[in-house]
Each structure stands twice: as C-alpha cells, then as structure tokens.
Amino acid sequence: MQDASQKKTSGKKVRHIVKNYLTGHLRCAEFALTNVCIAKCSFCNIWKQQPKVMVDREKALQAVDKMAELGVGHITFTGGEPLMHPNVVEFIERATRHNIHNAVLDAAPRLVTKNDMHKKLEAAGCDLVSISFDSGDPVTMAQSRQIDNIMDEMKDAMAEIKKTSLKTMASVLIWNDNYKNLEHVCENAVNMGFDLISLNYPTFSDSSVYELGGSAIDFSKEELIWALEASIKLKESGKYPLINSAPSMRNIVNYLKDPALAKYHCFGGKHVMFVDWFFDVYACMQLPKPIGNLFNITEKDLNIPTCNKCNMSWYRDFSMFYHGAKSVPVLWDAMRNSSGLI
Question: Which of 13-17, 151-155, 324-328 is predicted with the least confidence, judged by mean pLDDT?
Fold first, then answer.
C-alpha cells in the first residue's frame, strides 16, 4: 500500500503525463542499460553479444535529463537485464525526480529481491516491475529462459514484492508454446499474483543492437492472427488484467491481413523511442539505423512520418493514443485500466 509521500509522487507523474499529452509533447521511451543478461532466451540474441556493455553512470543520468527535456513521460528500463546494472536505482530516482512514470523489465526473478532490490526500487519511485512470464509450466519456463528453478524464484520474489507498493506485470511473449493456450498462461499469471499482464507480439528485428528472432516465434501470419483474435476475446471477457487494448490488437490483426487495413499507424520516433546502451536513438528497437545520438538530437529530428511496416507491440500500442478523434476508444480503455499502472 502506498504511503502519503508515494501517492503524492504518483499524482505528480499523472499530472506530468496529462500535461505533456494535452500539449502534444508526450513521449514514451525504452532505455536499454546493458546487453548483459542471465537468461539465454531462444528468441533473443542479446545475451550472445560481445563485448558486454554497461551504460556509463553519469551519461545515463544525463540521458534521463535529456529525455525529460524531450517530453518523455514514461521510461521502461530494459536491457539485456537492467537489474544487473549497478546504478539502475539511481536512474530510476532521476526519472522520478523528473516526474517520469517508469518501469523496469526483468528476466531473472532472483535479481528483483537480491540485496533487497525490491525495497530500493520502491524507495526510488519505481512504478512497475515487469517480469517475463512465457508459460505456466515450470519446466517450459526454465527451458525457455535457460534459468533453473525460475518459477520457484518467481514465487519467492512475488511474495516479497507484495510487501511493497510496487506494481507487478507479467510480460508474456506470444510464442509457439503458448499461442494456442494464452488463457492458461493468464490464469497462471493471476495465480502467481501479478497485478497486470502484457502480451508481446512476436517479431523479427533488423537491428544489430536489439536482436530478436528465432524458430520459437517463427509463426505463419494465420497463426499470429489466430492468437491475437483469441487475445482480444480474453481482453473483452474482463477476466484478466490485460493492458493491451482491444482496438490496438484489432489494428494489428488488420495490419497482418493487409497493411492497408491498419488505420492506426506507428508514431515510432515521434512519440515512442528506443535509446540503446550507446545512447543512440531509434524510432523502433528493431530498426537497423538510429535517428541520431540522444545528446545531439532536437525536436526537429524526431518529427518523422508514421510507419506501418511491422507489428511491434510496445510501439504500436503506445502510438494508438496519438491519432486524434480516432484515439478516443483507446484512451477510454486506457483510463479504465490506469489504476493498475499509476
């Protein structure tokens, strides 16, 4: 439960987001702190990268300042494994100082509570801890992430997190093991104690920095459409705390059927961005070329056309909010679910 100070901080973050949105300056960012990772996922090659990189502490703090200047109202700290960066708590503190809503991703649950990390995250103003949750089966999860006893570690971590004000989210990648039975995954995520569930649509990356792909997510278009239509039904049932909006998932289904049918294009670069561990800014984490370096780009550099070339969930989901009158149903859906996020 939040104390008075935490509620005040949350209120400031909400007002900051609303102000930036109404003035047309709201942006969301992913900030990759490192390519170091404990997990060895079959659908991600970041853990294989050499050399290993950790963002410089001082430059990373300045990067958060710069993102605040650019109107960023939400930062997701990612990696690799962001909790392996020794200064991650300081980065979250800096985001909170700017009233930036923030989340941290995690693939190895043991790191969430190691050395009381969960308490440090809470004190720093972290709003959400998102933990990878690909299956309700312990054996499958261990094989998927190549982390022994990962489900037992997750249960222990969730029990400790529940003693804090931190919100938790199960980050579910749709892959060939679960796409026919996503409700089972959602049931297990709820039973595990997660406050929220996000579905990540499988995609392949052209980036040499953020390498995604592999046979585990090599779907046919028809299979992915089937999975997304099943996900829409789960969302509309109201049984599970899915943050993905039904309009956004329908938009992706339309895109997969025929790109011309997608009426909501992606504002990657203009309103949603990816910042890597070299502080280069990309319109999307899967693109091969950056827009420029964070410390040199201006508002003009980010005024780029919308895109309609992939089904990247995070970017297309956030982009749904920036389409004027067409975004009203999406905004309404987001407001109904916002109590779990802020």
Answer: 324-328
pLDDT (tens digit per residue) in 169-217? 999 999 999 999 999 999 999 999 999 999 999 988 888 888 888 888 9
How far apart CA 108 and CA 7 sit, in angstroms, is 29
| 14-30 average pLDDT score | 91
pLDDT reported for residue 119: 98
- pLDDT over 90 at 137, yes or no: yes
- CATH superfamily entry for domain 4-220+231-243+274-304: Aldolase class I (3.20.20.70)
Where b means 16+ CB within 10 Å and e means fewer, 48-81 reads ebeeebbbeeeebbebbebbbebbbbbbbbbbbb
**In Å, how far from its chain's centre is CA 31?**
10
Q: How do beta strands 280-282 and 272-275 pair?
A: antiparallel
Q: Where are the domains of the chain?
A: 4-220+231-243+274-304
Region of 270 please: left (phi>0), alpha (psi -120 to 50) or beta: alpha
Q: Return the higher-pLDDT residue of 187 and 339.
A: 187
Contacts of residue 59, Cβ cutoff 8 Å, sequence gap at least 6: 279
Q: Does 80 sit behind a cis peptide bond, omega within 30 degrees of 0 on the bond before it?
A: yes
**What is the residue whose two structure tokens read 């094989």?**
143
Alpha-carbon distance of 69 to 167, in angstroms, equals 27
Chain-centre distance of CA 327, in angstroms? 20
- Please give the structure tokens belonging to residue 205: 């990356």
- Separation CA 144–CA 147 (nearest Å): 8
